[in-house]
Write a structure and sequence with these properties.
The complex is a heterodimer of chains A (about 120) and B (about 110). With about 120 residues, chain A is mostly beta strands. Chain A is built from no helices and eleven strands. The chains are: A mainly beta (about 120), B mainly beta (about 110).
Amino acid sequence: NAGVMQNPRHLVRRRGQEARLRCSPMKGHSHVYWYRQLPEEGLKFMVYLQKENIIDESGMPKERFSAEFPKEGPSILRIQQVVRGDSAAYFCASSPPGLIEDTQYFGPGTRLTVL
Amino acid sequence: ELKVEQNPLFLSMQEGKNYTIYCNYSTTSDRLYWYRQDPGKSLESLFVLLSNGAVKQEGRLMASLDTKARLSTLHITAAVHDLSATYFCAVDIGEYGNKLVFGAGTILRVKS
């Protein structure tokens, strides 16, 4: 059973460009979460999605950031007009349906560098 | 705003010694998780603690949860070099479950 997959693993963008980060959850998992980790810090919750629904986006910046989890295909975290402060590691996690107590399984992360 | 505080933030210890990492949090929750992260890597789930008094052990690590004190501990017994990593606790505060608030992490270095 493949784990959570993220791509790309490393992404370099210039200020003002768009960044698209992809996440494929573990097989059988229908819940997806995105977190951001700044250097030397813990992870910060961004958004929680189920298929075609955003359940909780309380951690998403109000502008430039959006997330989706379509019926088919991976979850996408999109950052428009990136700025240097967006440089961070972005982790996706997934969990199976039903059990809210189950742990989240994390992907390898995408390390975004904004020049 | 929920705060999750870990201490110490950095721990250097000799092989064979014991030590405890503490995780305090500021709101009611009975779901707490411990993760390990190696440099440049993702997070690996260590323990899921779901009730007051829960205690779980895996190898040289043991985790416990006291929901009344809002405190979890991660105890390391007879440390070995392979335990060197960053350890995070995370508290679940989501209305729907699974909205994790992480502590800042404890960097553990085990010296041989």
